[in-house]
Amino acid sequence: DYNGVKLFTKGGRDAKEEVTTFLESLIAKVEPASIQSLSFEEGIKQNRIELIDPFNDYIDTILSMINTEAIRKRKLRIVLDPMYGVAKTSLQTILVTTRCEVMVIHDRHDTLFGGRLPSPSTHTLHRLSNTVVENGFDLGIGTDGDADRIGIINERGEFISPNQILALLYYYLLRYKGWRGGVVRNLSTTHLLDAIAHDFGEECYEVPVGFKYISAKMEEKNALIGGESSGGLTIRGHIAGKDGIFAASLLIEALSVTGKSLSQLLTEIQTKYGAYYMVEKNISFPPGQKKTILEKMADQSKFPAFGLPVKRLSTLDGLKIYFENKGWLSIRFSGTEPLLRIYAEADEESTATMLCNKMAAHLEISPGCSPDCD
Asked: What angle, rounded to 10 degrees, do the helices at 262-273 and 244-258 form?
């Protein structure tokens, strides 16, 4: 299930589309019978494989980019859940170095990730949430297997969505650190970022789903931050790819510098920009149904009445409907599994749910859903 190749290029960024397209063209020409193998040990002996250990440089770089003095003074109590992945060593080192009190759960080395999906979400961080509340911690941090995405639990034991974290960090960098620059998001990520950017005289750039598009647009526009609703984000000046360790470190700095709790900071943002609620439905469907779904998505004249005035449509990636004010609805097929992803955002959760439900009913999709389908 996890087989495949993920390519990073210089600077730690996802390979650009032209790079992956070029490599795919080369792969298509390869005859399977001509492929030769080489053992890892032999590759080392022949100097065809180079081993590096960037741990110290990586940790020292992050420590140099955050306000360690403010974090030391705040003395935060934090629970870390690396989900049996790689974050324990790196993030724990940063937290201990900055004098945070740290409790670690799910920290053993386990290539099967404890028998569950190593993705930090409201469905997988129950123990982290309970541990924060039962022991009075300030924050819970969960990371996925390779620590490029984070899931956050606030002091009340509530899961804080990646959209909220992305908005909070962008707001913190602009409002409290005085940094400047635009923001890049994919089309399924909160438009709260647009509101924050506009408030500070910056631009928000929308790209298709896929972090390589975020990296490319950030490089093109010299944007300050870029991210997606699945939990990955990157910040200018660090590596150009997703890094949950740095994101978590910067979040801890935000709490320390402002002296506020996570709930207080999010309340500050909501008071200033209003409420943004997102609903996501991941709906499974038989492979033979995809053509019919695409036809229904293309026939916009038969769309249901959503009760909201439509501002414009986009086919940048699937279909996205922009409504007047802050509402929107996105429909796209997953690139990795047989799922149709329907996202909606509005100023009320009931409105976002209604938008998703009406579109799902219109497309007449079988009701089989993933665990995060409401």
From this structure: 80
Exposed, middle or buried, 104 (CB in 10 Å: 0-12/13-18/19+)?
middle
Which value, to the nearest 10 degrees, does the dihedral of the CA atoms of residues 194, 17, 143, 274 take?
10
Tokens of 53: 């250990």
Where on the phi/psi map is residue 124: left (φ > 0), alpha (ψ -120 to 50), or beta? alpha
DSSP structural state of residue 116: S
pLDDT averaged over the chain? 91
Burial 143-164 (b: 16+ CB within 10 A, else e): bbbebbbbbbbbbebbbbbbbb
Q: For 171-197, write each residue's pLDDT tens digit.
A: 999 999 999 999 999 999 999 999 999
Report the alpha-carbon distance of residue 279 to residue 273 in Å, rounded: 19
Structure confidence by residue, pLDDT tens digits, 54-111: 999 999 999 999 999 999 999 999 999 999 988 989 999 999 999 999 999 998 888 8
State residue 25 phi and psi, 5-degree precision: -65, -35
Phi and psi for 206 in degrees, rounded to 5?
A: -100, 135
